[in-house]
Amino acid sequence: MTKDWFMDYAEHALRVIELEQEWLEIRYLHLYGEEFRGRHDVQWTKDEHGRFTGSVSSGGGSAGGGKSKKTIDKKRGSGIIKENGNSPQHTYEKIGEIDFSDKKSIAKSLQEFEHKYNDSDIEHCRVICSSGEVYDVHGDLDTVDTSLLGDKLKGSINEHNHVKGESQYSFSWEDLCSSADDGSKISIAFDEKYRYAMEFPDIRPNQDKVYNAYQKAKLSVFEDMFSNPLLIPEGDEQNVIIGRTCRELKIKYTRTPR
Ligand SMILES: [Zn+2]
Fold first, then answer.
1. What is the number of structural domains in the chain?
2. 11 CA distance to ligand 1 centroid (A)?
3. How far is the CA of 152 from the centre of ligand 1 (A)?
């Protein structure tokens, strides 16, 4: 073994590592879009070995666009929440009233909702208010703006559909952020494969906590994907991110096949 050979080999190895890091960043960008690079939450720096290192800034200032009325950007997974209040023609209707203490009635209403919108090409959300009022909110392909119902979300049980072929098979960042913020007690969503639910604790995490926990979970999933690609099955990334975020925030999270 000559020294030259060894140096070539070492250089080559370093280049491979660099390529893998770049590949990882590209894959992550592919999954989560420009949000990952464009927002200020994750900073990529190259260390002295030429490796990319991601770090999360702790400010969380852009989390959910603050307290102003928010409409969710239509690009799935973009994580960008606009503050212009131009909700893209989402509407709601009152469906009826049920006894909120009667779990059977609630389950029946949710079953009926799933049946009704199973094949829908836009999102809908059924909101069962703690007062017993039942509403359906109608959205678009990527989102449904339940903030139209304001305080009625507080303590509610709600469920929305993800359009077939559009699902990440778990809650989106927007789902998590808005449910944590609007006072939902239980938020459920379903798609062609799974049904998933979040049950919020009585002492709710604030927006900054939610935001930081989500970013941390995203980075940890990202790192796992790099160190052991078999650890997280392909297509399951969002489920693991939401699972880890919820664990940290003491939100009960479950996902079950339908
Ligand atoms: Zn959703």
1. 1
2. 46
3. 19
